[in-house]
Amino acid sequence: MIQRLPEEIDALVSQRVSEQLSAHQKTLKQQENLSLVQAKLKEHFGEEYQSVYKQRLDNLGLSREYADELAKTHPQVFLKTFELDATKNVNTTTLPRSQQRPNSFSPSSPKRDWNYYQEMKKANPKMYLDPKIAVQMHDDAIALGDAFGMPQD
């Protein structure tokens, strides 16, 4: 049997412990990277990200194992590959629908009834005779019905 000196034994034990510690730290870092990637997937695609993730894998022609390994070892490359590194533009001041003005920034048009068109005829006879105005007047008369106010002959 080979006899080893206590210094050699200490060096071998120290080397072995160091290797195991390094492997453990590597495993922890990979788990941390994978958790980061999964959090980004959930943030980007919601809780049901699995189906979108699978579809992206199929589109890129990647296996699940390869993508998971990439996520563990190179999370930034994974995020860029799957376009998860871009931040979403989230508008945090969105009002509920009931509080928004339905006509915001749209000009208000006057009620186009019989009197409106008669005023147009007086103010701008050339525009009044435009065929488009005749079509619009007809459509307004149908839409408003009796409220259009056309005199009965």
Radius of gyration: 37 Å
What composes the largest sheet?
Answer: none
Strand % is under 5%
- By DSSP, the count of extended strands is 0
Helical segment count: 7
The end-to-end span amounts to 128 Å
Domain module tally: 2
Oligomeric status = single chain
The H/E string reads: HHHHHHH
Unreliable residue stretches:
none
Helix content: 55-70%
**Structural class by helix and strand composition:** mainly alpha
- Shape summary: rod-shaped
| Average predicted local confidence, pLDDT | 82
Describe the structure.
The chain has 153 residues and is an all-alpha fold. It has two domains: 6-81, no CATH class; 111-153, no CATH class. The chain has seven helices and no strands. The chain has helices spanning 6-45, 49-60, 64-73, 75-81, 114-123, 125-128, 131-144. The longest helix is centred in the N-terminal third of the chain and has 40 residues, at 6-45. The protein is rod-shaped, with a radius of gyration of 37 Å. The protein starts with 5 loop residues before the first helix and ends in a 9-residue tail after the last helix.
Outline of this structure?
63% of the residues lie in helices and 0% in strands.
